[in-house]
Every structure is written in structure tokens, then in C-alpha cells.
Amino acid sequence: MKPVAIFQHDPLQRPGYLLRYLDEVGIESRIIRPSEGDDVPPSARPFSGLVFLGSDASVNDPLPWIEQELRLTRDAVACDVPVLGHCFGGQLLARALGATVQKSPWPQIGWTPLRVTPAAWQLFGSDARVLAFNWHYETFAIPQGATRTLFGEYCLNKGFMHGRHLAFQSHLEVTEEIVRSWCAAHRDELAAAEGPAVQHEPVILAHLDERLAAVHKAARCAYAKWAAPMVRPPRLVHVGV
User: Fold this and answer.
1) Domain span at 157
2) Do residues 142 and 160 touch, judged by C-beta distance below 8 A?
3) Contact, 124 vs 221, CB < 8 A?
């Protein structure tokens, strides 16, 4: 089985629960860090899937590695190699599919309940609402031919699916360590952030166990749907009588 390539763009924005899930179901993965000098593969064909994580950069920034990831994402769509994007990664997939990414009406930081569209009920185990963690200032438009999966009160486009590809304008991969490290590293940013969709550190860190359990429940459903074609069925062993 070909590995899943996970593109990590920041030391703190790690694959977290996603990596835990892939390991659990026996899917090999390879972490690539283009912003730290790793080469972006020219083709998606050596991989069974591509994952793009968050970044402090904007997908509209004129950085060589972003352009290379856009080309790779378009190649994955052309080759039908499934793409999964969280936050920056979701914006990358949107841009690769021809949609715009622009400043969101409000910054969104913290825990947010999101509504699941009827078209995506099976993606989240028939739940009408899911909880997600957010930390973004930009948002994507829904690409032509894609279907909105999630929407929120202060950001309409929180997720879409396009064939086998999934994009989330949120983080389902976070763990307690990741959330705490983000808050610690960005205290000045949190203190300066304002708006109806901004939570500050004490609120973000409250009830972590309960909130993460809810996020991981949604994540597990979505990851299972996305990764289903990559999971090998168990081998049947015939025992002679």
C-alpha cells in the first residue's frame, strides 16, 4: 500500500489525532515539511492520499512551496488521489479547484458548533451538528462541482466535499497538547484578537477532555470515510481440518 503524504507547514500544527487514526487502521504515512525545505513531490501518484495541515501563511502568499503544493493538489485531483485539507489545507484544495480564498468577515478562534448539511450526514455518522476547533482569519468559497458539508454562524463555508476530496475550514486533528501549545505560543495574538467568534485562552482551555472527545468523534467518522479505500481488508486464514 502506498503511504499517505502529510504536509506539515508549522512545527506546532501537527497531524495529531489524524496520525493516531492512520496508525490505528494500519495506513502508513510520510510527513513532508515544505516550509522547512523539504521537496514537494512533483506527482501525487506515489501516494494513496494527500493531507495538508494548517499554516500561519495565507494560500494567497507568493511563496514557492505554496505554488508547488497547488500544482500537486491539482495533480491529485486529476489522478483521483484523495486529498484532505484542514484550515490552510482546505483553502489550498479550494484554490486548486478554482475557488477564491479571502478574508473572513470575522476572525474565528476557539471551539464552535457547526451544522452538518443534509448531503453530508453520512460523513459524520448522521449527526446534525459537530464541534470543531478553529483558528483562522480567511475562508474559502465553495468550488464549482463541490458540495458544502458544514456551515457556521460567523463563517458560512466550513467544509466541502468534491468527489473523494474533503476540505475543512477548521481543525479536527487537534489534541490537548496541540491546543495548549497554540495558546502558549500565540498569547499576544489571542490578547489582541477581537470579534464575536473569538474565544480567549481561559475559555479555550476549559473542559478540554469533553470538547476533544466531541471533536474526535466527528473526526473519526470523516477520516474513516476518506480513508476507506486505503484500508486493507483482513486476510482470511483457512485452517485445515
Assistant:
1) 4-230
2) yes
3) yes
**CATH number of the domain within which 206 lies:** 3.40.50.880
Our measurement of the distance from residue 29's CA atom to the centroid of its chain's CA atoms, rounded to an integer in Å, reads: 15
C-beta separation of 2 from 228 below 8 A = no
Residue 49 burial (C-beta neighbours within 10 Å; 0-12, 13-18, 19+): buried
Position 149 in a domain: yes
End-to-end Cα distance, the chain: 33
Tell me whether residue 241 is in a domain.
Answer: no
In a domain, 240, yes or no: no
Structure confidence by residue, pLDDT tens digits, 140-192? 999 999 999 999 999 999 999 999 999 999 999 999 999 999 999 999 999 99
Is the residue at 239 inside a domain? no
Residue 109: partners with Cβ closer than 8 Å, 6 or more residues away: 134, 135, 136, 190, 193, 197, 198, 199, 204
Note the pTM of the prediction, 2 decimals. 0.94
Query: How many structural domains compose the chain?
Result: 1
